[in-house]
Amino acid sequence: MTLFIAALLGAIQGVFMFLPVSSTAPLVLAQHWLIRHDHPMPAPESPEMILFDLVVHVGTLVSIIVVFWSSLKVFCIECVRQSLAWAGKGEKETSLLYPRLFLLGMFSVLCTGVLGLSLKAAFEHIFAPPYMVGVTLILTGALLWWTDRLKPRRRGLKKINAGVAGVIGLAQGMALMPGLSRSAMTIVFALFTGLKRRWAAEYSFFLAIPTICAATLLQGMEVVSFGGLGGVSYAALLTGFVVAALVGIVSLKLVVYFLYRARLKVFSFYVWLLAAAVLTGLLDLSI
Question: N or C of the chain: less Cβ packing under 10 Å?
């Protein structure tokens, strides 16, 4: 894989990672197109290429840290401070809001993992036909359109409970279905639970950090067991990582802008056009 190809794939990942549209299809389709035009790179289903995909996903986690730096810094500092204060019993009425949110986030990841490990193979089998991908894309567009019509959400951070965390975690697990977007599913179902738009966004994107890191670690172990990176160099991994991070910052700021103003339906048109292309055969997903 050349550095130019690595940068191109990193840019694609950066653009589509945060947009509430399916990010898997553009990246995989781009890889197949490049292979068809004789660009040297491993097959998309190979362990080293899956690792590359995850590395550019990790690159977009840098985008989350940059865009939400203020909130993330407060979360980390307060989580440690409140935990230490509670452990040392230095304060009689210590607030445990942030440690509780951390535990709820881990519960969401657990729900994602349980659902993903249990149904991933089934999802890939049932939704393998192109027409099923078209159906899930239509569903994604409908959900995005519907969220803009919701009344103002009232649930704040203090009212996030295990039920809300479980729903969001399961929604993230459902995004394993081809055609469903992780960011769309988590944001939409967070809004359905009544979570305010700001907290729905931050919970969704913060949740991506442990989820993607865990998936990358597991895939890295698989690549090592298969004998190494093969056709993907460390320079290519680094290039894809950096480009995905830089492009992802712009993409994430765009999503936040539309989400806070209840205008996610602008992405519905893209999703429905993509669904039409799949269902009519203009876009070949059988590659």
Answer: C
Q: Between the CA of residue 84 and those of 56, 66, 102, 203, what are the distances in Å?
A: 35, 27, 14, 23
CB 44 within 8 A of CB 31: yes
Question: Which residues neighbour 26 within 8 Å (Cβ) at sequence distance 6 or greater?
Answer: 12, 15, 16
Distance CA 17, CA 223 (A): 23
Q: 47, 60, 42, 29: which is closest to 1 by C-alpha?
A: 42
Which DSSP string corresponds to 159-186?
Answer: G--HHHHHHHHHHHHHTTSTT--HHHHH
Residues whose CB is less than 8 angstroms from the CB of residue 6 and which lie 6 or more positions away in sequence, other chains included: 52, 235, 236, 237, 239, 240, 243
Count CB atoms within 10 A of the CB of residue 117. Answer: 10
The whole-model pTM stands at: 0.80
Query: For the CA atoms of 149, 154, 160, 162, what is the dihedral angle to 10 degrees?
Result: -60
> How confident is the model over 134-139, as a mean pLDDT?
82
State how far the Cα of 122 lies from the Cα of 128, in Å rounded to an integer. Answer: 10
Percentage of the chain with pLDDT > 70?
84
**pLDDT tens digits, 48-103:** 777 787 788 888 889 989 998 998 999 999 998 888 888 776 555 567 889 999 99
Inform me whether the pLDDT recorded for 231 exceeds 80: no
For residues 186 and 172, the answer to whether their CB atoms sit within 8 Å is yes
Domain ranges in the chain are 3-85+96-279
- Find where tokens 């709820």 sit: 104
